[in-house]
Specification:
heterodimer; A: 9-stranded antiparallel β-sheet; 4-stranded antiparallel β-sheet; B: Nuclear Transport Factor 2, Chain: A; globular
Amino acid sequence: MSITTGNALITEDWRIAGRVYRDPQVFEAEMRTIFARCWIFVAHESEIADGGDYKVGLIGRQPVIVSRNADDGAIHVLFNRCRHRGSAVCQREYGNANHFRCAYHGWTYGSDGRLIGVPFPDAYGDGFDKSSMGLAHVPRVESYRGFIFACLDPDAVPLEDYLGNATRFLDFIADLPGGIELSAHASKLEYQANWKLQLENTIDCYHFSFTHKSWLDILNQRGTSSPATWRENVAQNETWRTIDFGGGHSAHEYGSLESHKGKTVTNFSSGELLPFNFVVFPTLGFVGAQLRVVMPLSATRTRVLLYPMMPKGYDAAQRAEVLRNHEAFYGPSGAGSTDDIEVGFDRVAQGLAADAVPEDWILMSRGVEREVVDAATGVRYGRSADELPQRAFYRRWLELVEEGLDA
Amino acid sequence: MPELSVSGGRLELLAEVEAFLYKEAQLLDAREFDAWLTLFAEDGVYWVPSGSDDSDPQREVSVAYDSLSRLRERVWRLQSGVAHAQEPPSRTARILSNVTVEPDGDRLLVGSVFVLHEFRRGRLHIHAGRYRHELRRTGDALAIAMKKVELVNNDGYLGNLSIVL
């Protein structure tokens, strides 16, 4: 990362070029590298618990079906594209089916993608080999403790190596009472700005007391927290730390994982399960009681799924509390998501339109002088409001995207 | 409760309910939120389902599922001056029509169709769907026990929906 020319995407002193958030060419490079080579979260096993269960999703711009085979329970990630004339064979977001039938000419595929039916097949002659004409498979599919990832790169490292030091945070989530399920479905957001802004925001404690002042005032009225308490923790609490796991993965922890083991109240209330904000590079995030999936549509258009995670061991009242907590802050009508969309995404897009400024950079250098590296693991630690997690993201991002721009 | 077997009574009831709904709509468009809150019963709920009109709010996420205390917080926030998502505030105009009233014991089950235009940050947004009000008579007045908003696009991706629908 030694580029300091006018064309640099990121400088050594951690300025990021405005075009990183605007430029369709950068977006295309992201598709060619990040989304073609990284492990992308596609489903939690609870979403496709039974044979025949499926859901649809995206790997970058690739529409896929995540399907559990009715016969042997194996999980397949299939491109949602008929081998005949290209029509998407699955139209529902999730469901249960023992086959996918293309509505255009009736080609029919099993839940493992196998082509099982072609109307009037004799017109293709003797050389037609049905066994080679199934729905195309995404080449790599692996699950870590219920979190299913897929990868377009057949030569990718195994998922567990990709996750690296970040696995213990996924373990903490998987070990919540009874394990978690995504049975509550997701809040669905769309905004007109770059996808990386949502990831930056997911692990940013610096913005909270400003962007979300109204929320902290509400917590103050409830007597559960206050703007002053929050600012004090961010400025002084040394157990609130930012973490760069390497590989682009990062977190902000509110006290160590060990100090929270077995507690039901980890943050503000019992509706908040996680004592950390956590990002698995490039598009999976965790906050409070939520799993979030960021889906880039273009350089300036993004969709986000926000799933309240439900511990299977929770009773009806506890589940309702998770839901009510989630809705109050997250989603299209929540106090937090709407303020983030307004300030952190829409107004950033508006501001970054000013590309005639003398220096078309944003700053991501907060706390760079006080990063501490654990020599044994290579994991970096910073203070609460330092931009260390964002730098963790962009270190990996730059390695990948530069290759894509060179190509 | 008016005598419902008499057609005049039914029209009278419909007129009373429509007047109530128009008043509610006017209060929301005028951003008179504190007056709007007084229309709710103490155990009233404001519910905007997500995913489908008949999702289960105790098991599945909603766009909003506010008890009166949560609704007071929502309204406080909208008027706090630091709710950035409503700075500047949206201007709204809503039309509602196709009102139906079905008495059910001491409740009135009221259906209507709405179209709501919202203008903010130079963009005009259109929201549409069905209101389902469950009204209760307390003394002379009607009170909202449940206001359910069935957005036509509640299974879609939504943007900044910080206004009260």
